[in-house]
Structure formats: structure tokens, C-alpha cells
Amino acid sequence: MPKILIIEDEAAIRRVLVKILSEENDTYQVDEAEDGLVGIEKIKKDDYDLILCDIKMPKMDGVEVLEAVKKIKPEIPIVMISGHGDLDTAVNTMRLGAFDYISKPPDLNRLLNTVRNALDRKELVVENKLLKKKVGKNFEMIGESDAISHIKDIIEKVAHTDARVLITGSNGTGKELVAHWLHQKSERVKAPMIEVNCAAIPSELIESELFGHVKGAFTSAVKDRAGKFEAANGGTIFLDEIGDMSLPAQAKVLRALQESRIQRVGSDKDIKVDVRIIAATNKDLKKEIEAGKFREDLYHRLAVILIQVPALNDRREDIPLLIKHFAEKIATEQGTAVKVFSEKAIKMLQEYDWTGNIRELRNVVERLIILGGAEVSETDVSLFASK
């Protein structure tokens, strides 16, 4: 049930607003405050979905109320109520964050439309917050080992900067997870994070994928197309498996890093981009440099901050936490109760040789949940967790 607070010093206006809202929708719960100070106290103690606030009031005017609410509960939309002489001030409140304003005496249709739109906006804001929280949780790093604690410390220090990061580690260790955590904790979180799997794109198409192309640049280029760098403008681009990128593409990435400019394939026009680059690889890039397969100057540009993600075999103490995490996540996905793993089953899994790392462990946990008993036992592990 939407809760609406009316802050208005004129009792007659308050009664009109309450009557209109109550008759329009009996699900609206309408509360009243006779001045700004009372209104602020109510807002601190209760959760409102919308505030209607007069501009000219004793003790604390509407502009002061607006500024205070934006500090304590910025997600609440505020509609200002303006008298004829307050219109200029009402317009200025929009710049301060007010959702809209209505004039006195309130027009019925204008008021109801504004209220509905503001409540829809509040619902959207709440949904976005929940979605961001869910996304952030999906990329949560699980583990308390020294190796994972060290990575978390680096992320906390580096995330808010624009420093380029090179993440290394074997397949399945969670390099993508580290990249997402860096972005989620950065100042660029409101902008997109664009992922590019350099190993999955044919070498002849990688430049077009990264930088875009103009119509006629090659046979299948039937129209202009923006690349991943432009899509990530203002945010982060994650170049996964960068060790598989072709040398010509490496040269263009290097230029983008040096000049913050790109050129679409087939064009000589510079396009300015503002992106943070995070790269990852499962290869030893220093050996690739010696073999002439990777540019040394690009390596030094990318490796401002180096993060080595350990293999699961090197952080076995995290396996009980990971099993619990995966069991809860799989139960949520399947809509079932969370299965418990016996201590002996967990101990057996800790002793396995996890060549596939976290990805392999997750698959094994899911297999055991599907095929194992009510409590996953060491017998289940012996039967179903074999390689």
C-alpha cells in the first residue's frame, strides 16, 4: 500500500489533497504534517513512497525540506506545491531534485497523474536498487583464505581509481569475478561494463568488434556499427583472454590506451572514448612476449596493477564456504530446500585435485545435490564426484 505524506501548513489545502487522494484510490495511505519540521520528523521515523510538500511554510520552508530529504532518504520522490507567486521557486526545486510541482488550487487530473507517475518512479528506483544488490551479490567473492583476502584488499584500494588492471590465473579460477568486483566497487558502476572474450572472436573480426566499422569497410559491412569501446564509454571494458588477441588489434588497443581515442575500421576519424580497461589471461604474457606473440609495450600499459588469482588447490580452506555458497545458490535456482553436505563429504572434496578450479567444483556440487541423498554423504562423493 503506497504511503503518501502531505506537508502543508494550510489545513484547508491539506483536507482537499487528502480527500482527492483517498477518493481516487482507497489503497493510498495518506499522512499529514502541518509544517516542515513535523514532516522531517515523520520522514525519519516512517517509510513513505511519496511526499507532497508546500513551498512557503513557517519554521522550515519547502526548499529546506527538499534538501533535507535528499540527504536522508534520496529515493523518495517529492512533489512541490506552489502558490502563484512561487512558480519560479518551484521550477528551481526541480533542479534540486524535486520530481515535479503542482499549483494551488490543485487541478484534479494534474495532481492524480503526477502522483501516479511519481509512485511509478519510486517503484522503478526500488527495483533498480534490488537488481543492483542482486547483481553485486552474484559477483561476491567467496573465501577467507590469505590469497583471497589479499585480492579483496587490492580491490578495495584500486577499485575507485582508473588504474588499469591485469588479472592472471588458470581457467575457472574466477578472473571474471574479480573484474566484476572491480567495476561494481568503482566510480563507474552506473555506466556499463562491456565484456569481450578475445579468444572467442576470429582474429579478422576482433578489430571490428572492439572499435566498430563504417559502411563498406569490408564485404559484410552494410552499415556503420559502433564497437565495444564506444559501448563502454564512461564505464569499463573487460578484455578477457587478451593473450589470444592478434598483434594488429593489440596495436590499436595500445593507441586507445595512450590517446583515449579510437578509429572505426575503414575510417580515419578519431572518436574520443573514456573507458577503464581491465584485462585477463590464462597465459604467461612474458613468455608470449619472448615468442613475439604479445607486445611488450601493451603489457606494460595493461599491467599497472597485477592480480594473480590462485588455483583452487592453493586455497583448499575456502572449499567448505564455496560448497555452502553453491548449495544455497543452486537451491534458489531450482526452488528446492538447501542440501547439507556432511563433514566427511566436505573433507573428501577438499582433498580432490581441482584441475578445473571453481567452475569444476560448482559442477560437482550441483551433480551431488541432484544425485545424492537428503544429506550429501562421503558415499555420494565416492559415487558421483569422480572425474
TrEMBL record:
Residue intervals of the Sigma-54 factor interaction domain: 141-370
**Which residue range or ranges hold the Response regulatory domain?**
3-119
Show the Pfam families listed in the entry.
Answer: AAA_lid_14, Response_reg, Sigma54_activat
Q: Which PROSITE patterns does this chain map to?
A: RESPONSE_REGULATORY (PS50110), SIGMA54_INTERACT_2 (PS00676), SIGMA54_INTERACT_4 (PS50045)
Q: Which is a GO BP term held by this UniProt record?
A: regulation of DNA-templated transcription
Do the record's keywords include Cell inner membrane? no
Tell me the GO molecular function terms. Answer: ATP binding
Gene3D superfamilies for this protein:
1.10.8.60, 3.40.50.2300, P-loop containing nucleotide triphosphate hydrolases
4-aspartylphosphate PTM positions? 54
Q: Which UniProt keywords apply?
A: ATP-binding, Nucleotide-binding, Phosphoprotein, Transcription, Transcription regulation, Two-component regulatory system
What protein name is recorded for this chain?
Fis family transcriptional regulator
Q: Which organism's genome codes for this protein?
A: Pseudalgibacter alginicilyticus
